[in-house]
Amino acid sequence: MYAVVAGGGKVGANVARSLLRLGHEVTLVEQQRDRFERLEEEFEHQVQRGDATELHVLERAGLARPPDLVLALTGDDEDNLVIAQIAKEKYGVDKVIARVNDPRNQAHFDLLGISPTVCATSSIMALVEHEVPEHDLIHLLELRQENLEIVEVQIDRDSPSAGKRIEALDLPDGARLISVMRAGHAEIAVGHTQLEAGDQVLAILEPGKEDELRRVLLRR
Amino acid sequence: MKALIIGCGRVGSSIALQLQREGWEVTVVDENEDALTRLGDHWPGSFLVGHGMDVDLLREAGIEEADAVVASTDGDNTNIVIGQVAQKRFDIGCVVVRVLDPARADFYAERGLRTVCPTKTAIDTLTEAVRSCGIAPVQAAR
User: Fold this and answer.
1) In this structure, is residue B15 part of a structural domain?
2) Residue A157 touches chain B, beta carbons under 8 Å
3) Which option is the CATH number for A2-120: 3.50.30.30, 3.40.50.740, 3.40.50.720, 2.40.110.10?
4) Could you tell me the pTM of the whole model?
5) Which of A189, A205, A126 is nearest to A155 (CA)?
6) Which of A206, B17, B122, B139 is most exposed, with the fewest beta carbons within 10 Å of its own?
7) How far is B92 from chain A (nearest CA, A)?
8) CATH 3.90.550.10 for domain A131-218
9) Residue B77 and residue A78: Cβ atoms within 8 Å?
10) Residue of A nearest to B53 (CA)
């Protein structure tokens, strides 16, 4: 596979190194002179110096071939957006992965159809949500294109849903229970599944329905 | 008519002042508070400090009611992103984007963004200025 990695900071350099170890062909592009010179010692001809949002720099890196994969991993979200757009729409690169530095910019990537994206801050926050017990509804997965998300809810003794069958719950439109994990064993949730205190329930729902779901399952 | 100008350097501030004189209601956004001084001592329009990619700030600056948006920061890619957000997310019909790099200006122009490339204008003007000196080349280019 041929991959072009834009941005030779910690993320870009580590990704380039990992791809090379897997035996792939890689060109890394870095704009800053001092960083480039350091990278050149390690990556030799596999690193090029230039602004990866300039077309001639991208073409020198082989964008016209086109590569199997372009990774836009600079520390600037606007640069990553433009690199991803040019790679996809001008050179027809099939797979583009972009880094989101500021999670508030995620909406711009979504708006302009850049997917998949990776945001370290969002990933860390998702883990924090998962690890910190006071959160009663944990976001596990966002299916952005489908406008759905998967969440985990912990049923406790005070929950109004404890002791009830799922078919008896007044679940909001656009929300379904997927599975129930009890004593280390998971089962698909069906109408006659009875919820118990201690159950970990997975649900799929449209974003924004969290509060309604919380109310039905936990009365909070 | 309401105009939102993002980036208040030499270019953005001059556009703001010009439109304001022509009767537009102008709001200016810049990351740097000091940029306000470029608008003179008696700027009658609004001025907000912040980044033009911040959607909350754009809303606060009234982008939803704007008739025209000008992206004139010193970053080509910042302008390109702001311009597309204004066009596609906020549905602004008149969006003008400054892009110094001619190649990127052409690429995004083909995709429906109204890009203005001062570099190209400078190249044309300077070349024309040399021609207008009336010096005939000794030999035609081959």
Assistant:
1) yes
2) no
3) 3.40.50.720
4) 0.81
5) A189
6) B139
7) 15
8) no
9) yes
10) A105
